[in-house]
Every structure is written in structure tokens, then in C-alpha cells.
């Protein structure tokens, strides 16, 4: 490509071979020694770790490393043990496999997690790499993820933004003052726009659910029912993401009798739209998905619970732009950041989430809803039971009453106020413009030799 980089940014350990290739290049083209090349490449390398889940950190056995990296070792003057040592916490431990994350940490000068809480977890996870440091001094900071506003903001909401936000706002989305006037939008106009997006989602869901039922060969009566599923007047909750077990897509179903009361309440009913995919090798994830699909087939829940197949960016857009509430209930602290809820915020939806990932630093008590109090139990079964109870409580005592509390114009004024606050307080913080500015100022400039780096001060 003819590009000579001044900074190498590794996202996840998957890309950790990049600095090694650059070391080889400097040694071959510039005649550098191995030690000099490693020092220079490490100084210009930045590493972002994205997962607190052990399975997300690739490990390879010795024979595989020899097969694929042996030739590189010959070119840079390292034998097999030298190459293996780069991917081991203890280079001398022959029983330790080669970890890509360890390699990335060793080959970088700046490292960061993707949310404040994830930074805490990451420092704890990788403390063995710096055994002489106390945990808070481990050199891993955080830069919280953000989403690309033009990709996820609906056209209808964009019209409102253009009218109340300053001219050129779309080029300054990372600045808090740009969003300060959002609360000037009239409640009726914001609610009408949201209802329009909600109706669009429901139409989209009906068509997709009916087409999928037809493809499965279901009877005509069922297909016809799906064509009129969901009710625009009902509180609509969305859940869409990978069906990894720790994300607990079926947590709301833990107590089916209580779930039935919530969904089928004659005065304040709730409807749910699920979407997502499971890894083909994840039997637990597939079982969760199958359970939700079977629930959709149950006669009592038909029209109130939908599972939409083939989760992709188009389906995601309809969901994040049209739901009233976005449900997120991972097992804390396993959600490194999460970004789906940030997309919902831009379009006026409210998050109801475990205090994990980005939501742990985003929730202020009035810009969405929190499930539980941010506590974690050492026993997963106890944790799941506790969180399921907390989810039920926040739905029954906060979310549902607030949504159905209407004025004489049928407007949920307190709900709309929370929508406004969510956009104003979260829109500027959790978007890609702010995120990239943080990376430039706190990692790229230091790695390029501009200033000293202290990621622990980044928020």
C-alpha cells in the first residue's frame, strides 16, 4: 500500500503478529538488531483488549507455533523457545501455551480496555504480567467504546436533531455542549417521531416473522396471526445480540409464571422482540435460542413474543431505532463494553441494563433503568437468581408504570423526559467521534512520540 506507519494499533490479540512482522522488516531493511527493532516497534504500538472472557484470548500449542512462526524466528534470530517466550507470561515455563494477548501486551507501549469497569477487570486479569506492581498500577487504562452516529441514527430523528442542535452538529458529536439543547424538543414531537419509528419496526417484524413461518411450512392460520402480531400501543422491549450464555438472553424467562403476568397483563401489557445468533459450536447458546423460539410458538404468547431470524445490520437498525426499551442483562463483569444500547440512545429508546460495560459508567438514575445494584456473586447460579429478581422488580415497579403513566393527551411525560435526558447525557459520550478523539490524544500521539501517555486518566 506504500504506507509507512508511525503507529500500529492492535485490536484484540488476533492482530498481535503485526508488530513481529514490523520487527522483521526493520531488521531486514534497516539493519537493526533484534533488540533495537523490538524497542522501536513496541514504542509505536498500541493494544486494545476487548474481552474479559477467557475464551476470547487465543492460545496455541507449541507445535502449531513452530509450524507457522518457525520461519519468522529464523529471520529475526529467535529459536523456538525464544518465539514461545513472547507469548508466555513466564518465558521459561515450557508447559505454558502461546497466548496472543500476552504477545500483544509485550509488544505495545500503551494498552487499554474498552470501558471503565473493563479496565478494572483487565488490570486484575493481566496482573501476572507485572507481578512487581500493585493492581491499580498495572499499565492498562480504558477508552470506552462508542458508535458511529450516521450509521445508527434514523432519518426521522435526524430531522429533530437538525432543528434543535447547533449547525454542523454532526461534525462535533463528541462535544457535550453540542447536545445541550436537545431537551428543548417538544414532548409531543419527540413522542410522535418515536411512535413512527416503532410502527416501522412492527411492520418490519410482522413481514419478516410471517415470511419465516411460511418458509418453515407452518399452517396458514399461524402465518396470518403473525401478519398482525405486536401492538404499537404496547410497551415494546428489544433484545438482540450474540446468544452467548453469559449474555443470558432467557433471563427474563427464569420465572415463567411472573413472565406470563407481565406479558399478558390486561391493562399494562408488554411485548418482546428477540433476535440474534449463536455460535454453531455453542450448544448452551443454541439451547437458549431454541427455548425462546419455542416460547414464541406457545399459543398464549403468540403475537406478544417474536424471534426474528437472520440477525444482520438491517434488522439491527430497525430494532435499535424502534423499541421503547433495550434489554441487556449480561453476567457482570463479562460485558467488556457493549454498544447496541448506545445505538438505541441516539433514537430515543431507553436502556434497561445490568450495571456492566458502558452502562456502569453511563447510568445516572434518570437516563434509563438499572437492573440490580452492580454487585457480583462468586456463584453464578446465585448471581443469575439475584439478577432475575432484580430484572422483574425494575420492570414491574419502574419501567412499566412509567411507560403507561399518561397525561390527558396520552403522552407519558415522565418517560419522554427520561428519553430527552438519555440523548443529552449519553449521546456525546458514547459515539465514535469522542472515542477516536480519545484514542488520538491518549494513545496515537504518545505512540508517535508526541507526549507522555497516562491512560489511567482517560474516561
Q: DSSP helix count?
A: 18
Report the principal-axis shape: globular
Please give the CATH class of the largest domain: Alpha Beta
Spans of at least 5 consecutive residues whose pLDDT stays below 50 are none
CATH superfamily of the largest domain: Glycogen Phosphorylase B
- Helices and strands, in order, run as EHHEEHHEHEHEHHHHEHEHEHEHEHEHHH
Shape-level CATH architecture of the largest domain = 3-Layer(aba) Sandwich
Q: And the CATH topology of the largest domain? A: Rossmann fold
From the alpha carbons, calculate the radius of gyration and give it in angstroms: 25 Å
Mean pLDDT: 94
Helix-and-strand structural type: alpha/beta
Structure characteristics:
Rossmann fold; 46% helix; 6-stranded parallel beta sheet; 2 domains; 459 residues; alpha/beta; 12 strands; 4-stranded parallel beta sheet
What's the SSE blueprint?
Layout: E1 8-11, H1 17-30, H2 34-43, E2 45-48, E3 59-60, H3 62-76, H4 80-86, E4 98-99, H5 100-106, E5 110-113, H6 116-125, E6 141-142, H7 149-152, H8 155-164, H9 187-215, H10 220-226, E7 235-240, H11 256-264, E8 270-275, H12 283-297, E9 305-308, H13 313-322, E10 325-328, H14 340-346, E11 350-354, H15 359-362, E12 369-371, H16 380-404, H17 413-426, H18 432-447
Parallel strand pairs: 1-2, 2-5, 5-6, 7-8, 7-10, 8-9, 10-11, 11-12
Antiparallel strand pairs: 3-4
Helix pairs in contact: 1-2, 3-4, 9-10, 9-13, 13-14
Amino acid at each position: 500500500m506504500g504506507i509507512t506507519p508511525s503507529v500500529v494499533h492492535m485490536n484484540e490479540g488476533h492482530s498481535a503478529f503485526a508488530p513481529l512482522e514490523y520487527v522483521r522488516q526493520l531488521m531486514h531493511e534497516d539493519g537493526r538488531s533484534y533488540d533495537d527493532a523490538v524497542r522501536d516497534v513496541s514504542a509505536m504500538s498500541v493494544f486494545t483488549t476487548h474481552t474479559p472472557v477467557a475464551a476470547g484470548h487465543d492460545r496455541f500449542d507449541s507445535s502449531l507455533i513452530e509450524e507457522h512462526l518457525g520461519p519468522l524466528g529464523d529471520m529475526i534470530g529467535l529459536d523456538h523457545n525464544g518465539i514461545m517466550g513472547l507469548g508466555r507470561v513466564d518465558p521459561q515455563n515450557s508447559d505454558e501455551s502461546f497466548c496472543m494477548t500476552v504477545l500483544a501486551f509485550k509488544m505495545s507501549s500503551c494498552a487499554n480496555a474498552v470501558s471503565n469497569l473493563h479496565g478494572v477487570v483487565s488490570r486484575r486479569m493481566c496482573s501476572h504480567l507485572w507481578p512487581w506492581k500493585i493492581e491499580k498500577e498495572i499499565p492498562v487504562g480504558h477508552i470506552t467504546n462508542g458508535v458511529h452516529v450516521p450509521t445508527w441514527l434514523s432519518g426521522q430523528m435526524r430531522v429533530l436533531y437538525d432543528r434543535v442542535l447547533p449547525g454542523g452538529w454532526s461534525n462535533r458529536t463528541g462535544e457535550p455542549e453540542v447536545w445541550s439543547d436537545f431537551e428543548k424538543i417538544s414532548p409531543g414531537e419527540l413522542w410522535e417521531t418515536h411512535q413512527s419509528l416503532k410502527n416501522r419496526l412492527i411492520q418490519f417484524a410482522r413481514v419478516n416473522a410471517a415470511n419465516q413461518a411460511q418458509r418453515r411450512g407452518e399452517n396458514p392460520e399461524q402465518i396470518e396471526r403473525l401478519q398482525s402480531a405486536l401492538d404499537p400501543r404496547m410497551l415494546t422491549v428489544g433484545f438482540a445480540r450474540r446468544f452467548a450464555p453469559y449474555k443470558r438472553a432467557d433471563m427474563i424467562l427464569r420465572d415463567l409464571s411472573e413472565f406470563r403476568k407481565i406479558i399478558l397483563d390486561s391493562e399494562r401489557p408488554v411485548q418482546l422482540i428477540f433476535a440474534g445468533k449463536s455460535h454453531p459450536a455453542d450448544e448452551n447458546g443454541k439451547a437458549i435460542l431454541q427455548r425462546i423460539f419455542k416460547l414464541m410458538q406457545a399459543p398464549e404468547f403468540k403475537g406478544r413474543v417474536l424471534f426474528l431470524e437472520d440477525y444482520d445490520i438491517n434488522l439491527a437498525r430497525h430494532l435499535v431505532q424502534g423499541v421503547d426499551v433495550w434489554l441487556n442483562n449480561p453476567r457482570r463483569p463479562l460485558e467488556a463494553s457493549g454498544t447496541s444500547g448506545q445505538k438505541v440512545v441516539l433514537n430515543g429508546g431507553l436502556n434497561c441494563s445490568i450495571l456492566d460495560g458502558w452502562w456502569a459508567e453511563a447510568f445516572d438514575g434518570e437516563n434509563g433503568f438499572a437492573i440490580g445494584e452492580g454487585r457480583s456473586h462468586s456463584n453464578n447460579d446465585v448471581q443469575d437468581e439475584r439478577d432475575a429478581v432484580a430484572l422483574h422488580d425494575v420492570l414491574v415497579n419502574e419501567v412499566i408504570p412509567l411507560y403507561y403513566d399518561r397525561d390527558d393527551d396520552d403522552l407519558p411525560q415522565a418517560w419522554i423526559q427520561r428519553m430527552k435526558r438519555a440523548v443529552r447525557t449519553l449521546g456525546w459520550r458514547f459515539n465514535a467521534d469522542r472515542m477516536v478523539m480519545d484514542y488520538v490524544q491518549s494513545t496515537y500521539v504518545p505512540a508517535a512520540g508526541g507526549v507522555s501517555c497516562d491512560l489511567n486518566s482517560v474516561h
